[in-house]
Structure formats: structure tokens, C-alpha cells
Write a structure and sequence with these properties.
The complex is a heterodimer of chains A (about 725) and B (about 400). Chain A is of the alpha/beta class and about 725 residues long. Chain A contains 23 helices and 29 strands. The radius of gyration of chain A is 37 Å and the shape is elongated. Chain B is built from 12 helices and 15 strands. In chain B, helix 1 packs parallel to helix 2, helix 1 crosses helix 7 and helix 3 runs parallel beside helix 4. Classes of the chains: A alpha/beta (about 725), B alpha/beta (about 400).
């Protein structure tokens, strides 16, 4: 009598394989038995099936404990002591793409046959790709291994109705089965006992209690946490943990939200008002309904949160920071948080740089800026105002400090050649805004043309409206779609009466008349925007008394030592050969990025780079999950409720003045609950609720899996709305 | 006739369906069905069978499944069902009703441990709990015997001398789910073996009657006595139909009690179902070594064949009973009944009970060897011996 024991997983067709082998021999006149070992099986659970055949009547009525051969439908079962009781000289047939020689190591002392039945089953489309049914392929392999003619196997399969692809799979496997050599050494007789749940005992001791059956080894896959970076965090130039502070706000912990923001940015009050908001453009929720109003929520956290920042233990290194715009403030703040003695050198009489003079009151009131500044100064940052640093002064600073960080921004304002004009009739936007801040700007009754399409252009245009200009035209050489200004700014400017004159290039100006040439859009330029092309002979006039130029800025490098290389890398590497102290360039002067948030990020990176230089300690400037940024396709969006966006409250047009803040922020933080926490476990507990086995728990703010009992059903991965769990093949 | 390899469940479903179909010539077939592991495949088979005349009624419980069978039987149909374990327990009230309503229903019962503890494997406690409810009980050893005995059960149950329901019994999984070669007879042969079903007391529109109304003690005694007399006629009726079966199918469906090497034996094992196969192998080996041991396979348990047992076991000094069941405090039920049957009839043999394979544990040849060694070494009987206990 030949006895074969089959080890497989529920769903692979092991019991049927036993029947196919039995039928094959039955048709040749043998007495046969085929049976399974039944318990509470599920797909994936280890199963056993048995087959006996003999020329004599079979009288054995027990499961096979000393098989002549074993078959492994799944090679991962090899670790479960499947050779228990296998007779010396017996075959181990393994469903595996590996060679018998490679597999033999796992079955010392036995002959190994191998066939990639899974691939053969897939080729013949038996079962599904995820769970191919491998039994008919293995029937062919058994025929080959036991030296049965292929016709016998075909007859057995046909008798049971397995025709078509099943016959093809058996034939392929018969041909593809590789037979290993008879090993020299005999098998170790003390093979470990199988760890299979073979008829689990149901009674323990005298208590009648049901013992635990570790069902984890039934699994063919298991869930793992798959944290991914939310797109908002990925794109934030300041490196803010956007999802983190939104989650704290959703938890109604406004102080914690502010604390998270202050980890990366000293200017949440500023960013909550004037940030371009790349996070809001990247928001995954846009693909579902509307993006989250992150800027409004950042403002809410800053205006309503209270955090006492305490200076850390002082270090002895002295750092001079030149310029107190966002780049300088950020560098000073992060250095101060690390304990360095920082002095800010500001050319004007007040801190803030362009934040104070280049952004009008109605967008960024002094009070809001001062609230952020107060937090920075609480850390012990020293300030020298009215200290304009030129090359000589910079050299001085390198002698009195251990490092100098230059964050002078973009001082050079791009001019425009409009011919001979009276000096009072053309003004730079930045200068105009500074005059307005000082109460010096006079535009009442004037027809104003603002040339440019960025935030400065619209700030100047809206300021001009507020100061009583007769008319305000924004003249831009591309179209509205290409304007770099915040879209809401443009919208609100139009509400306030600003006119857009797009595809216009000013070429000449005499007070009263601004001559423009019409433009059309050509092919994209290096910036990815369509290049404006002049239309010849299209000159015409716009009525205009005052031209305000907002054409962009560039760095003014004259204060740097001769031969200094100022580029993006200057925030990490000194710009010149060693002087008394290294000089770095921070913010726009180095990066020319032109946004507050980018300058904040640059200041932090510079502070960390300097810290590393001083101490050797490397601080992570940005935390990005190695698994990358999560795309909405990887989330289960249908599990979220639709919810309308909470926009900022805005002053009615008649109430808008230069000093009155036009945006009034959010009434409450309920908008934060709209954040989907993309790719980040926010302990929603849905996976715990839906786990049919109860093997998931929330532990220390994270979901934990009990792999001893997890059967790998995948429900948690399917139910995690934010794609934070994936199934890993075992 | 066609030899194929099928499970015990398949064999049972095959026989029930063909027997039911055979009654298309009269009032047809009927059954109520409700699933329970490990017999579900039987009712699946039956529910797929294209009966020419009759009805397969899916119901909400085993109690109702037997209710359907009782109603159908009293309407004159050939009625049958299948169940197991706790399903039988839930059906119990109507099992008794079928017996004393004298409904010739055939039920295939797959022995499964009565829970708790929750357990799906073989144990005879479920059908033995039904031993006193006026049903015939046949314990089968092979898939072929299940098929043959199911056909026999209809023939005997419907015999006017008997007119009692019959249970055909097999081990869970060891038989119910094990595929072995089995001869599957053609419908024409089944038709030839089974005449049309005639329930003499069936309800008729033209003669309305009440069945099962309240009666006095005296009528109750009569009813019990009639069942007792019917049971007493079964061994003879069984032998008659066994011969008829053999003549038609060319195969012995098996005697009610099947001795193997009992003559002159000093020690005889008594076994049922698949354990009998294992025990027979051990006995064969021991006999080859010259040991005087034998096996008595008990197939028919109700009626209890005490005459045949007394006859066959007369003069055997030591009897060991292999019970895959446990009656709380008394031990094995087969052992208990055998001891009672032999009491006072002969020289007073030693009858020792061995509890083997309780809850579906394997009964191996080695275990039976141990049992025989113990039995042969004994000078007196004692408390039941538990085998296969976790050390």
C-alpha cells in the first residue's frame, strides 16, 4: 500500500488532489481511499489530505501518520514540520519554482521533486491569480514522480470531469516536474513534530475550557502599517506637519496644533494669512469634493492657541542673522530653540522686513506679525534695528560671531524702460506698499496702472483702490491663468473694482497715457508657462497717471565678500572661503523662491546645517515616509462622508479699508475634521471595529496586529479609509 | 452497476435518492432537509436529485425536517432525511413521534460528537441517545455498507411485519468524507429490490382519522407492546431481505451480527463501524500468530440482537467491547447493553469495556493491540478503560 499525505492551504484543492490520485489508481484496479482532515478550515488555513492505494483491499481507517510520500501545495508550509513520519526514501513533491537541489536543504534525507504548479495553474487560468487552484497540475507531477504513464493521470482527471485547462495543466506539470537525486544521508528520524492545528484538542485539564488555537499560521498574507506622506506635508515649503496640526485641531486641541506648527515654523500667524497654500492645491480631498482650508486653520491655531516657548539651555556659539524677513526670522528662531545666542540685524527701525512693509495692513496687520515676533523674541533672540549691513559691516560681524547668516531677501527691484518719465509718475510696488504702510502714499483721484501679476501687483492694486485711486488696471503680459498671485487675491481685487488688462506689454509712458503692445501666448518657456509673444503693430494706450511696477525682484549680492557663490546650497555651505566665521545665505537671497513659506523652510534648514557644523548632530529637516506620497487612488475615498468646505469669513466690500483685515478667518476649527489624514493612522479605530478576529488593538496611538491569531483576511486593509494598512505576502 | 469512488455521504445520498425515486410508481418520495456538518453533503445530494414524483422541503430546523418526514410518511410517501449530533438532539421529540406513529422513515445519521465541547468528529453518543425511541439502528463499517444498508433499511422498515423507522449510521469523516470505491447500483436494480411503499395507516381523504391523540394507559401499553413485537420480528425479516438483496445485487449487505474468528476464541472483541475494520486486522494478525482471539461486529443495535449474541458468544470467557461513546458514569453503551444481554444466560463471561476514539480520536491498530493485551491479561472485569487520553 502507498500512502500519500498532502499539505496545503484551504482553497488550493488538496482534498480534490487526493481524490484525483485515488481515482487514477482506482481506474487501474487498485483499492483506494481519499480523505481530508476536517476542522474549521478557511481559505489559507493549513490543511492535510490523504490518499491510499493498494492492490489489496485497504483496511486502515486512520489518517496517514507515516506516509510514503508527501506533497506540499504551498512551499511556505515547509517550516511546519511536514516531513513528520515520512518514510526514508520517500518523495517530497513541492509546488515551487525552485530546483529540487535548492529545496533539498529543507528536507534533509529525502528525495525532492519540484514543479511550479502555481505558475502552470495561472497559465491555464485555474482559480484566481491570487489563489490559483494547483491540484490538477500537481496530479500531473505526482504521475511523473511515481512513474505513472501520463495517460493514467489523464484518465483519472477525465473520470472526475476535470477536462480542458485542467488536463492541460496536468500535462504541462508532467513534463515540467524536476526530480531530485536520492540523497546520500538518511533522514533525521527526530524530525520536529508538525505545528499544524491537527484536530486541536478541545478540552484542557478538567476544566472543560477550550484551549487557544494559534490561527496565525493559517495566513498567507498579513497586514502591515503602511504610513505614507500626505501630499500637504510633502509640498509644504516650510516643512510643516500639516496633517498633524489638523488632526490636533480636529481633536479640539488648539494648543497642541500650535505646538506642532511651531516645531517647524515661527510664523503661523503670518502663514495663516498670506501663504500661497501649496498644501491646499495638493490636497487629496480635491479629488473627492473640495480641498481643506489649511491656511484658515493655521490662522485659527495661531490666533487661538497658547504656547509658552522656553529658551533651552544656552550654548556659547554666537550667530548673527542679517535681515528679519521670514528667512532671517526662521533661522534666528530655530537657532534660538537650539540654544544659540542669536542677534538679528535689521536695516529698518522695526523687525519683519517685507512682511511688515511689503504686505499691506488689510492682509497682514502689524498686530498679527507682532504676535509671531513676540514668540521668537521670548526665546532670547537679541535685536539690532537700524543696522544696515554692508560688506564692511558683514566683515565686522564675522569677527564678533561664530557664524553669520545673511537673509536679506530680494532687494533688487526689476525696472522697466518706459522712456523719459517724471520720477513721481513711476513707482516700484514694494516702495509704494512701504509708503502706504507709513501713510505716505498718495493716489487719490489718480488713474493707476500696476504692471505685473504676482501678489505684490495685487497688493499694490488693492491698496491703490483703498487709498482712493480713480481707477486701477493690472497690466499683465500673460493671461489670468498664468498669474502667480493667490487666486483668491485676484478674485477679491476684481470684486473691489480692479480691472485686469491681460496680454499687454507696456512699452512707453507719458503721464496720462501708458502705451501697451498686445501679446499672445506662445510655446512654454523654461518656467513651464507659455511665453508671451508680441503682436507687431498692436500699440494702443491705457489712460494712466501713475505706473506701479511689480515685475519681480532679484537678490542684491553686493554685501557678500568678493567672489562669494550665493546659490540654493548657500543655506548649508558657507558662501566664501573661510573668514573669521562662515557666512551663509538664507531664504530668498539664496533660493529666490519668493514665498514666505519657502523662506521659513530655508531658515530652518540653515539653522540645522549650522547646528550640525557646531555639534555634529544631524536634525531631520523634513520627515518624509520612505513609502512616498499617498495618492487618492491608494485610499478608500468612498468610506468618507462628503462635507462642504468652510471658507474664511470675508469683509463685505463696503467695509474694506486699508487698515481693516479683509479676511476674518474661520469662526471655529470644525473645518479640520474634513482632513482625511491621508496615509497617516489617526486612530480612527475602523480597522479594530471591522477585524473579524479581534486581533487588532490601538496601542500607543498606533494600530497593532496580533500575528499569532491574524488569519490575514485583509478586512482591515480594505476598511482603512486612508490606505494606511497594506497586505504583505508571506 | 458501476464502481466509482465516492464518500460515505455520497453513498448515502445516492441510496436515499434512488429509494425515493423507486416510489415514483406509487405516492412518490418526500423529505425535510436541514444541514449540519458532517452530513450536509447528503441533503445537498438529495436536494439536487430530479425526483419524478415527490418533494424535497428545506426547513428551518431538524425538528421540522423530521416533522416533514412524518407528515409525508403518514400521507403515504417514501420519507427520509439525514442529520447528525446536536441536530439529532434537537430533532429528538419528533424522532420519538416517528417511531410510535409507526412511520417507516429512513434517516441516515452521521455520528458526530454531541457538543459541548464543540467538536465535529466521530462519536456515537448522538445516535445512541436515540436508542429507546422505537427506531431500528444499523451501524455501518464501509461506504458500500452504508449504501446497501440504506436500501435494506427501506425494505425492512416498510415491511408490514415491522413498520418502524430505521436509522443508518456511519462515522463522521472517517466514512462520511472519505472517498473509497463503492458500487453504485442502477435505478432499475433499486426498483427491483424496493416494492412501492405502502403505509397501511396512512391518512386518506375518504377516511379522515386522528393520529396521536390522547389515550389511556391501557392503550399506551398496547402501543408499546406492538412495537416490542414488531422489533422482535426484525431479525427474521432482516435475514429474509438480506438474502433477497444478495440474489439481486450479488453482494451481501452484511448480517446483523458479523462474527470473525469467534469460534473457539478465548477473547473476543466487539466493535462497530470503522473500528471493526481496524480490530479485524489486529485479530487477523494475532490469529496468524496462533492466538485464540476473535471479533464480533455489531451492525444491528436496534432491535438488540441478544439471541444471536448469546449464541455466538456462548463459551467465550473474555469479551472486550470497543465503545466510541460515553454514557456518563456507566461508560460504553454497547458494553453496558451487551453485559445486560449476556447476564444470566451463560457461564458468566468477563465483559470489559474500552472507551476508544471518544470525540473522534484515532483508533489505531496499536490501540487495539493494547486493548487485546489488557483483555487477555484480565481475570475479572472492571471499570471502563479509557484509551487515547492526553498524557
Amino acid at each position: 500500500m502507498i500512502e500519500i499525505r498532502i499539505h496545503g492551504r484551504g482553497g488550493q484543492g488538496g482534498v480534490t488532489l487526493a481524490k484525483v490520485i485515488a481515482t487514477t489508481r482506482f481506474l487501474q484496479g487498485d483499492s483506494v481511499q481519499a480523505f481530508g482532515l476536517y476542522a474549521a478550515e478557511r481559505a489559507g488555513a493549513p490543511i492535510q489530505a490523504f490518499c491510499r492505494f493498494s492492490a489489496e483491499p485497504i483496511t486502515r481507517r486512520t489518517p496517514i501518520t507515516e506516509p510514503d510520500h508527501i506533497i506540499l501545495l504551498d512551499p511556505t508550509l515547509a517550516s511546519l514540520g511536514v516531513t513528520q513520519g515520512l518514510k526514508a526514501g520517500g518523495w517530497v513533491l513541492v509546488n515551487s519554482p525552485d530546483t529540487p537541489e535548492a529545496l533539498a536543504k529543507q528536507f534533509p534525507g529525502y528525495r525532492v521533486a519540484a514543479v511550479d504548479a502555481t505558475e502552470i495553474a495561472r497559465t491555464h487560468e485555474l482559480g484566481t491569480r491570487a489563489l490559483p487552484i494547483v491540484n490538477t497540475a500537481l496530479a500531473g507531477a505526482v504521475g511523473r514522480m511515481l512513474d505513472m504513464p501520463l495517460e493514467w493521470v489523464e484518465a483519472g482527471l477525465t473520470h472526475l470531469g476535470f477536462i480542458g485547462p485542467n488536463l492541460g495543466a496536468a500535462r504541462d506539470a508532467y513534463a515540467a516536474t524536476r526530480l531530485g537525486a536520492q540523497p546520500v544521508a538518511a533522514p533525521a528520524l527526530d524530525a520536529p513534530a508538525p505545528k499544524l492545528d491537527r484536530i486541536p484538542g478541545l478540552v484542557t485539564g478538567n476544566t472543560g475550557a477550550t484551549p487557544k488555537v494559534r490561527t496565525g499560521n493559517w495566513a498567507t498574507q498579513r497586514p502591515v502599517r503602511h504610513g505614507q506622506t500626505p501630499p500637504c506635508n510633502d509640498v509644504c515649503p516650510a516643512g510643516n506637519d500639516v496633517q498633524g496640526f489638523l488632526h490636533a485641531l480636529a481633536d479640539k486641541d488648539v494648543n497642541r496644533a500650535l505646538e506642532i506648527l511651531l516645531e517647524t515654523s515661527p510664523l503661523p500667524g503670518v502663514c495663516g494669512r498670506v501663504c500661497q497654500g501649496p498644501c491646499m492645491e495638493a490636497c487629496n480631498r480635491i479629488s473627492y469634493d473640495e480641498g481643506v482650508n489649511v491656511r484658515g486653520l493655521e490662522r485659527f491655531a495661531s490666533d487661538h492657541g497658547h504656547i509658552e516657548l522656553r529658551p533651552p539651555p544656552a550654548r556659547e556659539e554666537q550667530v548673527a542673522v542679517v535681515g528679519s524677513g521670514p528667512g532671517g526670522l526662521s533661522a534666528a528662531y530655530h537657532l534660538a530653540r537650539l540654544g544659540y545666542a542669536v542677534t538679528l540685524h535689521e536695516a529698518e527701525g522695526q523687525l519683519g522686513g517685507l512682511l511688515r512693509t511689503g504686505i499691506p495692513e488689510y492682509r497682514l496687520p502689524d498686530a498679527a506679525l507682532d504676535r509671531d515676533l513676540t514668540r521668537i523674541l521670548m526665546l532670547g533672540v537679541k535685536v539690532q534695528v537700524n543696522d544696515r549691513v554692508d560688506r564692511a559691516r558683514l566683515t565686522e560681524l564675522t569677527k564678533s560671531s561664530d557664524a553669520v547668516l545673511v537673509a536679506t531677501g530680494l532687494q533688487h527691484l526689476r525696472p522697466m524702460d518706459l522712456g523719459e518719465v517724471p520720477p513721481w509718475s513711476v513707482v516700484q510696488g514694494i516702495d509704494f506698499l512701504a509708503q502706504a504702510h507709513e501713510g505716505q502714499a498718495v493716489v487719490e483721484g489718480l488713474r493707476v496702472a500696476v504692471v505685473g501679476g504676482g501678489n505684490t501687483a495685487f497688493d499694490a492694486a488693492r491698496t491703490a483702490v483703498r487709498l482712493g485711486a480713480a481707477s486701477v488696471d493690472v497690466v499683465y503680459r500673460r493671461t489670468r491663468a498664468e498669474m502667480p498671485a493667490i487666486p483668491e487675491e485676484i478674485e477679491e481685487a476684481l470684486e473691489e473694482g480692479v480691472k485686469l488688462s491681460c496680454l499687454e506689454l507696456p512699452v512707453a509712458f507719458v503721464p496720462g497715457r501708458l502705451t501697451c503692445r498686445s501679446m499672445k501666448l506662445g510655446a512654454n518657456d523654461a518656467s513651464g508657462r507659455p511665453r508671451p509673444v508680441e503682436v507687431l503693430g498692436s500699440e494702443h494706450d491705457i489712460m494712466c497717471d501713475l505706473v506701479i511696477l511689480a515685475l519681480g525682484q532679484s537678490p542684491e549680492l553686493s554685501l557678500f565678500p568678493e567672489g562669494a557663490r550665493v546659490s540654493v546650497s548657500a543655506e548649508r555651505q558657507p558662501v566664501a572661503a573661510p573668514m573669521s566665521a562662515p557666512i551663509y545665505a538664507v531664504g530668498d537671497v539664496a533660493t529666490q523662491a519668493g514665498t514666505v513659506s519657502a523662506a521659513i523652510g530655508s531658515g530652518r534648514r540653515a539653522a540645522y546645517a549650522l547646528h550640525e557644523r557646531f555639534t555634529g548632530e544631524r536634525l531631520a529637516a523634513a520627515v518624509h515616509d520612505p513609502d512616498g506620497v499617498i495618492h487618492p487612488d491608494r485610499m478608500h475615498m468612498h468610506l468618507f462622508e462628503h462635507a462642504a468646505r468652510h471658507g474664511d469669513r470675508v469683509q463685505p466690500i463696503e467695509a474694506r479699508t486699508y487698515t481693516e483685515e479683509v479676511h476674518m478667518g474661520l469662526e471655529d476649527a470644525s473645518e479640520a475634521a474634513r482632513c482625511l489624514s491621508c496615509g497617516v493612522c489617526n486612530q480612527c479605530g475602523r480597522c479594530v471595529t471591522y477585524c473579524p478576529e479581534g486581533v487588532l488593538v490601538l496601542k500607543e496611538g498606533q494600530v497593532a496586529f496580533d500575528y499569532d491569531y491574524c488569519k490575514g483576511c485583509g478586512v482591515c486593509a480594505a476598511e482603512c479609509p486612508r490606505g494606511g494598512i497594506v497586505m504583505e505576502r508571506l | 452497476m458501476a464502481l466509482d469512488i465516492v464518500t460515505g455521504n455520497h453513498a448515502a445520498g445516492y441510496a436515499l435518492s434512488r429509494a425515493g425515486e423507486a416510489n415514483r410508481r406509487a405516492l412518490g418520495a418526500a423529505c425535510g432537509i436541514y444541514p449540519i456538518t458532517p452530513q450536509t453533503e447528503i441533503i445537498e445530494y438529495v436536494s439536487k436529485f430530479p425526483f419524478t414524483k415527490g418533494a424535497v422541503v428545506p426547513v428551518e430546523s431538524e425538528h421540522s425536517a423530521m416533522g416533514v418526514a412524518i407528515g409525508a410518511s403518514l400521507a403515504g410517501a417514501r420519507a427520509f432525511t439525514a442529520s447528525s449530533s446536536n441536530g439529532l438532539a434537537y430533532m429528538a421529540e419528533n424522532i420519538m413521534v416517528a417511531g410510535y406513529y409507526r412511520c417507516p422513515i429512513v434517516m441516515v445519521a452521521v455520528n458526530r460528537t454531541l457538543g459541548p465541547p464543540w467538536n465535529i468528529w466521530a462519536d456515537q453518543g448522538d445516535t445512541l441517545m436515540m436508542r429507546d425511541l422505537a427506531w431500528l439502528q444499523f451501524y455501518c463499517e464501509t461506504n458500500q455498507e452504508v449504501l446497501d444498508t440504506t436500501l435494506m433499511a427501506f425494505r425492512i422498515a416498510e415491511d408490514p411485519r415491522v413498520m418502524l423507522p430505521a436509522m443508518v449510521i456511519m462515522d463522521a469523516f472517517i466514512m462520511s468524507h472519505t472517498q473509497c470505491e463503492t458500487d453504485l447500483p442502477d435505478q432499475t436494480l433499486v426498483d427491483a429490490f424496493l416494492p412501492t411503499c405502502d403505509v397501511p395507516h396512512r391518512t386518506k381523504v375518504e377516511h379522515p382519522t386522528t393520529i396521536g391523540g390522547l389515550v389511556w394507559p391501557l392503550e399506551t401499553v398496547s402501543q408499546r407492546l406492538e412495537v416490542d413485537e414488531a422489533m422482535a420480528r426484525v431479525p427474521e425479516v432482516y435475514e429474509e431481505h438480506r438474502q433477497r438483496f444478495y440474489d439481486l445485487f450479488g453482494r451481501d449487505p452484511g448480517a446483523a451480527v458479523q462474527p470473525y474468528e469467534v469460534t473457539g476464541a478465548e477473547a473476543v472483541l466487539v466493535a462497530t463501524e470503522s473500528i471493526a475494520t481496524t480490530a479485524r486486522e489486529v485479530v487477523k494478525r494475532r490469529r496468524a500468530r496462533g492466538e485464540k482471539v476473535g471479533l464480533l461486529k455489531l451492525k444491528m443495535f436496534r432491535p438488540f440482537p441478544d439471541e444471536q449474541l448469546n449464541e455466538l458468544l456462548a463459551g467465550v470467557p473474555k469479551i472486550g467491547v470497543l465503545d466510541r461513546n460515553y454514557g456518563a458514569s456507566v461508560g460504553g453503551i454497547f458494553g453496558m447493553e451487551l453485559r445486560a444481554a449476556l447476564q444470566g444466560r451463560g457461564a458468566g463471561a468477563l465483559v470489559q469495556d474500552y472507551l476508544t476514539g471518544i470525540g473522534g480520536g484515532d483508533v489505531t491498530e496499536a490501540m487495539v493491540e493494547e486493548v487485546l493485551d489488557d483483555l487477555l491479561a484480565r481475570t475479572r472485569g472492571g471499570r471502563p478503560v479509557w484509551k487515547g487520553v492526553k498524557s
